[in-house]
Amino acid sequence: MPVQPDSFKSALSLWASGVSVICYKSQSKSGGITVSSFSSVSLDPPLILFCLAKSSQAKEAIEASKAFSVNILSNEQKQISADFASGSLDKEEVLNKLNPKTAATGSPILSGSLASLDCRLENMIDAGDHLIVIGHVEEAIAMEGQPLLYFNRNYRNLV
User: Fold this and answer.
1) Which helix (H) or strand (E) holds 59?
2) How far apart are CA 90 and CA 33, in angstroms?
3) Would you write out the chain's pLDDT as a tens digit for each of its 159 residues?
4) Which of 101, 91, 105 is nearest to 21 (CA)?
5) Strand locations in the chain, DSSP E?
6) Distance CA 95, CA 30 (A)
7) From edge to edge, which strands make up the β-sheet containing 149-151?
8) Are 49 and 134 in contact (CB under 8 A)?
9) Which of left, alpha, beta for 127 (phi over 0: left; psi -120 to 50: alpha)?
10) Residue 5's CB: how many other CB atoms inside 10 A?
11) 10 Å Cβ neighbour count for 26?
12) Does the reported pTM lie above 0.90?
């Protein structure tokens, strides 16, 4: 018997994870999307991955620019995470209000993030209703601070 979607979501909500925002900028569209499905892949070469819904508006912009940034959020960036996760806000407006820096690839970098990775698109792999997006890290920036964590459908802090 196949697993029911609600049971699957409930089980996965018990996986504690950090929160990151993927930012992108193409000639026609810029914005960001909150993801918790982020992971390192390889040290040599430096590769990372995240999962992106096939229906996401970010897909076309990332394919067009062949670049994106991963911004690992600090515990002071809950609102940024919520804004980029919102289905009702214009992601380009959200990004512009944050006045991001520009990385070497042209991707937006969010100030105040614990870490930012400037990536070139390496590959997109079909996986059900999502794509596994693999990026080659061109630059890594790390800062001090506490991570924004997500567990059981709520933001959490380290104690």
Assistant:
1) helix 58-65
2) 11
3) 889 999 999 999 999 999 999 999 999 999 999 998 999 999 999 999 999 999 998 999 999 999 999 999 999 999 999 999 999 999 999 999 999 999 999 999 999 999 999 999 999 999 999 999 999 999 999 999 999 999 999 999 887
4) 91
5) 17-18, 20-25, 30-35, 38-42, 47-53, 67-72, 101-102, 108-109, 115-127, 130-142, 149-151, 154-156
6) 8
7) 17-18, 149-151, 154-156
8) yes
9) beta
10) 8
11) 18
12) yes
Identify residue 29 by its one-letter amino acid code.
Answer: K
Residue 2, SS3 per DSSP: coil
Total count of residues recorded for the chain = 159
**What are the C-alpha distances in Å from 86 to residues 80, 83, 89?**
10, 5, 6
Q: Which residue has the tokens 């061109």?
A: 138
